[in-house]
Design brief:
This protein is mainly α and 326 residues long. The chain has three domains: 94 residues, no CATH class; 118 residues, Annexin V, domain 1, CATH 1.10.220.30; 82 residues, Annexin V, domain 1 (Orthogonal Bundle), CATH 1.10.220.30. 67% of the residues lie in helices and 2% in strands. The N and C termini lie far apart (66 Å).
């Protein structure tokens, strides 16, 4: 069987030494690094005649002497130098599993979005369904508004991840994934897109929801019901509000309350000492007009803290969703 390009590259990187190999690795995309890493770790199993065939193509390197034939320790050193210890460990895990789809979960968002931008929106939606919400949100944010809305709509309408679709995606990514036997994997698209939108900026969230609403009002309402937005804080009990206020800054709170409902403001003030509430009100007045983006960022910070406390089991968010921020 002919030696593949990846195998030749693996032998070459074993020849040139760790420093040079690390520099080369840094210039490659993640798919190439994953494939080459797999072959470097397996070089010790190559036949001598195959290695010699490669050496004939890189005679200049043979003349230098030291030829290191891979192994896991070698490839880890190379990857650590080029990509850092954490990324090296993850790539080695990828190489052992040959599961490229799992590897997408640690690829940085910019690299992943650059890879996906030329793909069909349905393919992008499928990938986002396979990612963690925070990463999916970062990737979604990189696309043009029209594409964002299209992708979000497709994610929201996903009820099953078809086995053949995952297999085709994995073929594109040059990997494998074990989804078991059957027709596919059940999936709740509305929940996935709600979690993604909870982590996007306010303008993106509004744009996507409005776009979905024009096409499918029921679907948009279903998504909102699964989301937790800043105004939903009014539904928390007093203990929950008090715990949240211990975790947030006064600066964020004074900005966030700028556009809050009177009911929410009253609830916040009620759960503070009279003196603290008075200082907060004065701070809000002194600030005067503020940027909408600053208010949105502060509200997101508070929502993020709220969700974290819920995940830790410290508070309960009852009756999620529904109201849009005004």
């Amino acid at each position: 069987m002919a030696i593949t390009g990846y195998e030749k590259a693996a032998v070459f990187l074993s020849v040139v030494g760790e420093e040079v190999a690390a520099e080369i690795m840094k210039s490659l995309d993640v798919k190439e690094v994953g494939k080459i890493s797999t072959h470097i770790s397996r070089l010790q199993a190559m036949k001598q005649t195959e290695i010699e065939d490669v050496f004939k193509e890189i005679e200049g390197e043979i003349s230098k002497g030291a030829v290191h034939l891979g192994g896991e320790e070698y490839v880890k050193k190379v990857l650590s130098k080029g990509l850092g210890d954490e990324s090296a460990d993850k790539i080695l895990e990828l190489a052992s599993k040959e599961d490229t789809i799992d590897a997408l979960r640690w690829v940085d968002s910019k690299t992943l979005s650059n890879f996906l931008v030329t793909e069909h929106p349905q393919t992008i939606a499928l990938v986002l369904c396979l990612l963690e919400p925070a990463q999916a949100s970062d990737v979604l944010a990189t696309f043009p508004d029209k594409l964002k809305a299209d992708i979000a709509m497709r994610v929201a309408q996903t009820e099953r991840l078809p086995k053949n679709a995952i297999e085709e995606l994995n073929d594109v990514l040059k990997g494998q994934i074990d989804v078991g036997k059957g027709k596919g994997t059940k999936f709740v698209g509305t929940k996935a897109i709600a979690e993604i939108l909870n982590r996007t900026d306010r303008s993106t969230e509004q744009m996507i929801l409005e776009n979905i609403e024009t096409q499918n009002n029921v679907l948009a309402d279903s998504i909102r019901q699964l989301m937790f937005v800043f105004d939903d804080l009014v539904k928390l009990d007093d203990r929950g509000i008090q715990m949240i206020m211990k975790e947030i800054s006064t600066e964020d709170l004074s900005l966030a309350l700028k556009t809050a409902s009177d009911a929410l403001k009253e609830k916040i003030f009620r759960n503070m000492s009279s003196r603290a509430a008075e200082i907060l009100k004065e701070d809000m007045e002194v600030k005067g007009p503020v940027k909408v983006s600053d208010v949105s960022k502060a509200q997101q910070n508070i929502v993020r803290v709220t969700r974290k406390l819920e995940e830790e089991g410290k508070i309960s968010i009852g009756g999620k969703g529904g109201e849009e921020l005004v």
